[in-house]
Design goal:
By secondary structure, this protein is of the alpha+beta class. It has 26 helices and 31 strands. The protein starts with a strand and ends with a helix.
Length: 895
Amino acid sequence: MTTHAGLAGFYSYPLVALSVFISIFAAYAALDFAGRVTTTLGFLRFAWLCVSATVMGVGICAVNYVGMEAFRLPVPVLYDWPTVLLSLLSAILASGVAFYLVANPSLGLHRRLIGSVVMGLGIAAAHYIGVAAMRLPAMRLHSAGLIFFSITLAIAISYVAVRINFALHGKQPPRGWRKLSGALVMGTAVPVMHYVGMASVSFVPIASVQGSMEHALGTRELGVASATLVILILLGIVIDSIIGERRRSAKAQLVAENLAQLQAVFDSMIDGIIVVDSEKRLVLHNQAADSILGLTSKTLSLEGIGDTFEVLRPTGEPLPPDEWPTMRATHGDYCTNEEVVIRRRDNGKSVTTEITTVRIAVSGEKTRKFIVTLRDITERKQLDETRMRFASLVESSEDGIIGKTITGIVTSWNRGAEKIYGYSSAEMLGQPIQRLLPANRSDEDHMILDRIRRGEVIEHYETVRVRKDGQHINVSLTISPIRGANGAIIGASKIARDITHRMKIERQLQQSQKMDAIGQLTGGIAHDFNNLLGIVIGNLDLLESRVNHDDDIGMRVKVAQKAALRAADLTRRLLAFSSNETLSPSPTHLHDLISSMIEMTSRVIGPEIKITTSFDESISLILIDPSGLESALVNLMVNARDAMPKGGAITISTRVTILDADYPPVIADELKAGLHASISVSDTGQGMSQQTLERVFEPFFTTKPRGKGTGLGLAMVYGFVKQSQGTVRIYSELGHGTTVTLYLPLADNAPLPRKKTFESRGLFDANPVVLIVDDEVDLLDIATAYLAEMGCKAYTAADSKEALQLIESEKDIDLMVTDIIMPGGMNGVELAQKVRQLNPKIKIIYCSGFPADALAERSMQLVDGPLLHKPYQRDEFRALVRHTMEAEKKRTRQT
């Protein structure tokens, strides 16, 4: 019971309880909606602010008017509804301003105090405006102290409620015990302020009602209706809030779990991640970034980052801070996979890094943020560099290095393989390795791959392969299995070495060694047999002197003596072959000796054989046993005569030859490098096959009919020349004849011959294109190698037909080097004439094992160009090619 001066009234406690109930429900609902303001943006944020302010304002007014209905006076009380509406609007407006202030984290640390004051004043304003809406026959008197006290209580309690609900500074909405506690405190603030405010008012009776009664309504109707409506509304809001809270709690838990997982993923990422805002502050960074950059928890800005590491260009030069990708990103200059080197200052560790900067697009945020991704590529760079060095080694290798699958498909092909086999990598990649095998070795690769599948390594396997131009070459192969990550064999790597030239040298060396062995054996036999013949001949001489009166016995002794002398001559030849014959070398005029020998043997050779000579007058003296050389030349001429039973021509020519260190006889230690005199004896006979040439110097080997030769003529020549520190080379073409060339040393006291030679300087200014035409595979390979050293591009052809096809298809050929005698019905001179018709500007170099005069004796068309003698040497070949090309350039300039 409360007593006022003049009028006495009392409270209906059920309605008081109802007012408190309404206040708490309204506060709970309003704070729930206000909490959502902190987590939304844009229009949705404004909508939640309006809803929370409306709920709180309606709740405040409902508490006020239910509380006034609970206060019973002995006079009728009406309410002016426009004034009631004003109190409602003031409550809503104050609640909206208060919630905006406390829910906005950008207003600073005092936002809660300001919001509490606004909320408290709003509650008070709604109450006292509501009191002013009362229409009753009494005058209202107010206690200023209680008014101040009621307002202070409203502000204080509002502050406590705001403090409880918004202590997280807007990071997430209030929920759980925090929201319930805030609702209880805020729900207490409104009725406390109301009932203290009611206690500050005294009602003094008067004769009439003060104020307009035009819009007055009764308190019971208004109070019961509004209370019922508010309770229903608030009950629905609270139920919805509880259900929504559970949903939000589940979602929040799910979000929290997802955030935890994302954080775990973020921290476990190999790439370093940094989030930076436009103010150069580090918002976030993971452990990988800490490791790369050396960051600590104290590193809060890009300026601070500069103290932990330095940035270098990939070349090692320092990168100014203004050019760092992170600094450029603060000005909107973003980059993708920009490579830099980061060196930490604390331990000096350098990391090669790819940096990518990307802006984070978040609507509604005024502060721009961007992500910096740092990828450690140090190991990848090292692997790339190692791979590049390895690839460079593979590409620069003279050996062919080839990769292939387990089925024989080529997967890699280096420049060495291109040089050896003639195929480019584009022509071989993806193709079967079988295309390199000769027809008679087609199963060989299957055998190799079977061994590779068993895990075997094949080392130094010597075999034959076919080049792109059809040449057969000797190669040495080393093949190893290639294993995959699981250890299974997935292919093979092959190292191929061209051993064609080496095998040719080995064959020559073996032939030389074989001839030496035969010579030693023959010499031993001949020496012992010569001793026995000495005994036989001596006894026959003694016997002859005692049988002078017996003609029959004397005749038989003479026959035996003649046979013994023939046997002695035979042993002398065998001793000459074995280099056991005693020689007396002396400086000898070569051309005088040859002229004398021709005069002596011309009658033996016969008139049907024409003998011609071609001397190099620069040769003066050679160091030789004159009688031995004369005998050797006679043997050669007799052999030449026997090869031409129907007549022909013998050509004897001399010239000075410079033998290089890489000339096969020099490598085989048959000769010393330097100047030598060469004597060539050529005939126009039937020539010899390759099988015959391989045995032609063996003692007793002959192609003549039985009884027509001993097979010791060439053997004696070979032995004599070898004992004279020289060597013999034989060149023959079936159907065209044979040339035997003796290489002999010059005399030490002989003046050096003034031989016209061509200087072989370095490479050409431009790279000429040269066509090599020869039916000898070895010579094609050697010539191609010589041209490659000179920087020339080379094409090869095995006969005239193939050469003409190349001339027609390849218009850039500058020079053709062609053998003169070739199979196919067209010789080199005839080929040159056809080529000049197709390309008049092309230069021609001829090559042959026959001297030019010997070629002329075969009634061959005129050799109208420089002649390169087979077997030619590297410097000789290079010099003549250069001379021919430069002579053409000089002629062009003069014209």
